[in-house]
Amino acid sequence: MSLSSIFQTFLHFYFNYHYVESASSYIHSTFARRVQFTLRIVISFLVAGFLAYKSPLSHQTSQGFLIPLISVMSLQETFGLTVAACFQMLLGLIPSTIFLFIVQKIGLGYHDYLAAELILLVSSFFIAFICSQSQTRKIPLVLCAIFFATIVNQRSIPSTFIFQLLETFVIGMAIAVLVSLTIFPVFATIDIENRVNYCLLNLQEMQKSITKAFLHQDKISAQISLTRTSTIEEIILTAIGPIRMKLVETRFEPSRFLQRIFNRRRRHIINLTIQEQDDLIMAWFLHVRSMELMVKQCRFNEYHRDLIQELEAKLQHICLCQSVIISTMTTSSSITKDEFFHQVSDLERAGEALRSTYSEARLRRLEDALESAAIIQSEDYLSHSFFLFQFDSIIRLFTRIITTNVKKFVPAKKKQSLKDRLTPKWSRLFSATKCMIIVGIGSIFVMVSPLATAFENGQWIFVAICMTQGDSVGGAFTTMKMRLLGTLLGAMWAYVTYLAVHDDVYQTFGMLVPWILVFGYIRPLPRLNYTATVAMITPILITLGRIPYGNTLPAGNYALLRIEENLVGIGVAAVLTLIIFPVFAIDLLKDNIQSTFQACRDNMNSIRLIYDQLFYNKHLNEMSIDIEKEEQNIQSFFDVQRNHISQLITIQRNLIEHASSEPSFWWVNNKCSIKRYKTLVQQEIDMFQIFYCIDTALMRIHECSTNNDVQIENIQIYPINDDFFATFHTELTTLSDRLSECLNLWSSYFALTQRRSHQFFHHFICSKTKLVENDLLKHEQKLVELHEAIYRLQSQHQDTVHKIMEHYLDRLTQGDALSTFVPYMNNNETDSILNAISAMYFFDN
Fold it and tell me: Where does the sequence pass through the membrane (predicted)?
């Protein structure tokens, strides 16, 4: 290996960017990423610790232990997330600091229980109302807790005490940001690109495996080929999962600047934004999954065997062309723009050759059927047209990425009316009131002298109550369990540390470093993230927090006291969370499910309306965009709807986990198990996939009709085809109505099984209709009607095929040539429209 290669590998490892062909499985493994993250935490802790205890700053503040504690808490896995966490904390900290400084300056709260309590309640209500999410309000509440615990229990404090406290928080956050930027930096932007490259390679392999299965002549061989596909799909889902969350993190990073630096060799080839790369991966994944679905349902009969003999070479050539493009997109090798365009042109030509071969094959099947009076089964025609339509859509995805400087249409955001602005936000008001009451009750451990004496000023009980609040009962309980476990582990190590090194600062750092290494490695795991964080900061708090007091606070008692205070704080918080305006995750989950069903209904209605516009030129007053403008309008319109559904499903997964830990899940109107809710999520994902593929088909129809305004009219000049599209429109409308009725019924079930208090406080519904068990039986009738609509659609297509065959036979009998009455014979755009319609038929079935 040359010196330049070693240096390049080092740069890739240090800055965590790499291209797939040069990436070592060891250098860029999950283990290496976690080790880097752990080292960042350790370095952040040591820098903050030495700054707090071995620099002039140590003589300026008595809360020096907060600097390493805040630096460890603030440091996140990516630079964008670290900046986001610090920014959100500062949004709450700065206004709170100014308010508390004014309070201290005018002398309110000094050794005055009532005045201090009143001000605490006001400030906690203000913080909870402004910071609507529990994660953003915790640190400002902790600041208030420390401030009031200090001014009530200490005789004299400097007038700038609150700003000194803010200074320690800011220094800790600044160290975290600096370390995150300079020590093995992981940018969310580059992490997404790494994941995209990884997904591109695996999607190519998945598509190859599915194509190989499609080209088999029997179902058993095809199923064997698909076994590997399931494994690849799990790998892709694991890689795609975090991308949506990391897109939020990229808002706090100079994404385009980072892309220019790290992708300077291939910017002239592909220059997609992070969002566009995510859209590319998700679109390709949905198309490939649709192909897999078709292969699983494919009838490996004579029609299939004859067809694959003609298409095999073309399909393999397309896969080869795609592999070349994927290799170019994921490697660091230099290539000119003309060479890349040539590769894309090869793929386009391969796709055109496949379309032409398939059209010729269909024509020969049609001639054979007309000569032998054989019956063409619509299932065979639809399934194969659907499979090849997915291939065509994937090719179009890659040809579209070379288009640059195209400004996407962004639907205008709906402006809030004055009435909406003035309408009270009841849910936020109740949430802020709940937070205020919990903080007020927790403050008695600080402000009531007997309790404060018994619990060493009681401030850590107060802190535990502030830090265990959640957006729902399930979320709070999950946080409490993690905090309790982390506190127990951290307190034990703090006691061991004291026995080993006593009060020596340097040796204390030496004992804490291996502990931070262990839990820093565990911290990236989603289920153990908060537990690992608490386990890391607890020994920092206990050991460094007691050093200024020396032997006046024995370490054993100090560690046990922290455990006791956390137990009391968590116990009090658990009781208060349940009895004061409880918001159960199971109710929020049902709200989310209703919103998801409504989004699905809206998407289905949009599909029907745009179909009407394309084939019948009906005016769409219900649409929020004018589809006459350009293709980008419809595409962006569908993108907004799909992104909304995707976000709802992501939130739904988290709510299911929180709901499973709630007592309400065990006794309140709940007949669905966690397993059923997870099944429901999977069914929503399947609907999401169906809507995407139908949307893609409509986009293809719209593009073809835009390229040549007379294409759809040309298709409809044949009477049989007029009947075909009219009948399909009728059945599509019926299917849409039946699906909407089912979704409405299921939405009403989830609405009726919510608690009365939730409907009153969150939806302001004073009366509630009781759930009638017999009404639930209606869903069986609705499902029967839905299946009947699907069956009619299948029968209608088969009948239409028979009528078309009779019409073609009559024309042949009259001496006409096939080219004069078969729509797709001499027109590629017409052929594409018919294939798109067939794809819609297949998915509707």
Answer: 37-57, 78-102, 114-132, 139-157, 169-188, 429-452, 458-477, 484-500, 506-522, 567-589
